[in-house]
Amino acid sequence: MPVSRQEASEALEDFKREYTGLSQIKYVLLENKKDFHDHYGTKAERAVQAWAGKLGAYSRSTRTIALALAAHDDKSEIAATLAHEGIGHSGINTFSGAEKRGLIDALIESKKHPGALRDSYWKAVEDAYPHLGKSEQAEEIFSLMAETIHARGGGQYNAKAFDHAWQKSVVEQSEPLQAWGLAQVVEHVAHGLRENTRQHQIFPTSDTDQFRLATPQEKMAAISSHLNQGNFSDRERSIILERIQNNARYADNTAQPKASELER
Q1: Relative to the CA of 179, which of 39, 106, 168, 263 has its CA 20 to 30 Å away?
Q2: CA distance 118 to 102
Q3: Among 62-71, 217-226, 232-241, which stretch is predicted with the lowest mean pLDDT?
Q4: pLDDT score of 263
Q5: What is the average per-residue pLDDT within 25-43?
Q6: Measured between alpha carbons, how far is 216 from 252 in angstroms, rounded to an integer?
Q7: Which of 31, 56, 17, 202 minimizes the C-alpha distance to 140?
Q8: 62 exposed, middle or buried (CB, 10 Å; 0-12, 13-18, 19+)?
Q9: Rounded distance, CA 14 to CA 121, Å?
Q10: What is the pLDDT at residue 53?
């Protein structure tokens, strides 16, 4: 039996109270034709068809999370979808554009290495979303991890573990990102949304333009910023920057002609 509107509303209010940093997000409950008409207007009929089999959706351009009540059986499923869309697809945009690009790159790189990200998360996402580009699939992995993070509750965030995973796998690119590291990155986002200390930094004007690659200058500026904030000696900082620059030059030489265009 589908979750009732009252149960869905209760789960939504619980989520909003916990993640005060998502106060600017709009929420829509889709239960009947009137709900679809109120939200989609003249496109309501087409929207009903498009929603077949879907649990929820996040509109990046309008920052709206919509939930299909008929697809959920209870409040826990509503909570999981809210975490997927809110902490995941919305929360990842609390990174800067260059930071998000680095994280997406690290997730794509993780597909080459043994471990849960490759063998479980990537497999699940590629099976569920075969039509998406690698960048969008990587964001789905981030959002899938957000469900796990929310389900196990707060108090799991380890700032040192996050710093290690972020510096080694995203900034330095010296270690492949593993599931535990991604979990801490998502915990970092969730913690900031609970404490209302994270704000959106990416504001796409459409739902397909947030995967544009950062320029080399933007990426290096973001990396330099992280290094400046860390406890690195001048020699360590120089070695890291040189390694990243060499990696970038190699990538430029081997890239496909359309590597700088949108994934979708």
Answers
A1: 263
A2: 18
A3: 217-226
A4: 25
A5: 94
A6: 10
A7: 56
A8: exposed
A9: 27
A10: 84
